[in-house]
Amino acid sequence: MTENLFDEYYEKSLMQGGTTCCPGCGGPLFWRMALQALGPKTVIYGDGPCAMCAIRNIKLPHFNLHFSFVADASSGMAAAYRAKGIEGLTLVSSAGDGATGDISFGKVSAAAERNENMLQICVDNEAYMNTGIQKSGLTPFGAWTTTTPLGKEALKKEIPLIIAQHNVPYVATVSVAYPRDLVAKIKKAKDIEGFKYIHTVMPCPTGWRFNPAKSVEVVRLGVETWTWPLYEIEGGVLKLNVKPKQKPIEDYLKTQNRFRHMTEDQIKYVQDNINAKRERLLENDGKRVIL
User: What's this model's pTM, rounded to 2 decimal places?
Assistant: First the structure.
């Protein structure tokens, strides 16, 4: 009986069972939910972050690209669809934090400026995890990586807000700890014409140094401490989707050994920055932030 249930599930699923991702990686969980929202009429381009290994198991047309080709290959496909009059397909371009925020940021920015009809997803595990856990521009302040053994000295880039400044139709942050919110946002994005951007922070037990069984718990704390607020910007208007009672940043930091070396002053610095960001978001909730 149980066997038949599994067979039926995988027959209907757009993703096969099993991946080469590490135990506890949020990649397979994210892609199962994303594919549920995207549906079968989808083409996916992706670069090489390890959390993207999950797309090798999907039952849809998908292509693996080098870090330096994020967004531009999808832009070419969008142009080809227009030229051939192909409609009804969702074109997804996906990349990690290093590719999206560093190596190919200019190409993502250019696609957003042209308002290409595509969905750009950033699978953000906050470092170059696939090549040795080196820091990226999206690595948070204070985090240990192999290239920042004493902790990163700069704050994390606010890529979703930067993309929103391109006046694109839709930008949203999501988390695998909030599946209904995640699925609803991807469904909404898929039906909007033009450039859409979805950014998800991806739990990485290997690089963040925590128990793989705690992945969802860790990223939920990211939302509850306002380290990773969930919001969307549609038509230039900001909407906070989750407004949790704020927990102290220590609750989030102590779950991950990549932060264990941080001093009280550094923790206070992080808390002050999060408090300021939270106040700005609450102040602008429901208001037009892109003029």
Answer: 0.92
How far is the first Cα of the chain from the last one, in angstroms, to the nearest whole number? 57
| Alpha-carbon gap, residue 107 to 91, rounded angstroms | 16
Evaluate whether 47 touches 94 at the Cβ level (below 8 Å).
Answer: yes
Backbone angles phi, psi at 125, to 5 degrees: -100, 15
Contact of 110 with 118, CB cutoff 8 Å: no
Q: Which residue has the tokens 């106040």?
A: 279
Two tokens at 251? 């609750």
Q: Cα dist. 66→45, 86, 136, 143, 196 in Å?
A: 10, 26, 17, 26, 21
Among 93, 81, 99, 88, smallest CA distance to 45 is for 93
pLDDT in tens, 57-83: 777 777 777 777 889 888 988 999 999
Handedness of CA 191, 192, 193, 194 (dihedral sign): negative
Average of pLDDT values for 138-149?
97
